[in-house]
Fold:
Amino acid sequence: MNVDLRLVAPAVFCWLAAGVLIGVPAASFATAALLAVGAASAIGFTLLSSPPARRATVLGVVAVSLAAAAVAASAVAVIEPIRRPDIVHEVAQSHIHVTATVVIASIPSAAPSLGPLQRSPITGTMTELMRGRERFAVSVPVTLYGVRTTGEGGTTRAPLRPDPLRIGAEVVVTATLAQNPPEADPAARLFATGELHPGAGPPWWSNWASEVRSGFSAAASNLPGDGGDLLPGLAIGDRSAVNDRLDEAMKTSSLSRLTAVSGANCAIIIACVMLLGGLVRLPRGWRIAASLFALCGFVVLVTPEPSVLRAAVMATIVMLSLAGGRPGAGIPALSATVIVLVVSDPWLSRSFGFALSVLATAGLLVLAAPLGRVLGRWMP
Structure:
């Protein structure tokens, strides 16, 4: 079986360039320029030479790899000042209290006994910062923490748990701010010193997703045993019903991966829509369009975690390839997915969830068939 590996090198170069340069963003523009010159030189040499086919292919791969790395470096240089504007640096250095407006991207699990080191703190995007009467529009990914007073008169910081709040909603809070290192994601931490105040509500699609998640979790809660607690996590990524005992049992049995949404969920969604479309004799183009629409709704429902984004973008590339009349090959689709996602968000290059998702998928694509043939000699 021949595997098309031509896009693997560009994906690796893109990933490495982003992963290195987000730690030294000042060098991004210079690096991008050097890589672009290298890519142009390789392309020019390929066009001007009269090479054998193999040499042309190698030079083409080198040129595309350098170009992909240059685009990743440019993305770091462009996005870094947006993530870490001067006003955020000034506020963090002065340790003053500010009023921040945050759009919530994720909220803590409602599982009990999480303690001060809660597993999933509130994350979101700070869209407005007020220093005194000065108001600044920003777009900074943040983690939101609260300050809890202890019995000894000191304070310990623990993630806030605003259960009534919904993903996509705005909250306004008085807080102090601390910056994370350039390579970290989120870019800053907010430590609330006052009550949360609701701002604008979530958009309609986020409201829809919250209603579906709540309804699904409520229906699963009526199921007996631990299965009802695990089902929302497996189906829609809601682990709120997984208590400490069950979480520990899943880890002990090495089954904790089942409590999170994976690429298999996206594959099931697309397979079901394509099958139903075939049963009602929809043309292929309409079936593909319906599948992509359902996939988009599923991503909104489960929230765009790195593994979900990887699966959704890869599925989209494969479906568009099918729409164009070409079979969607796995490795090229995965490589293109890496390039698209890393360029759109270079900080994914340092995400363990993204890395595990990509490597696990690559392992399935490359090793599943050979392992199946070997095991087939001894097994039915």
Notes: Residues 110-120, 147-156 have pLDDT under 50 and may be disordered.
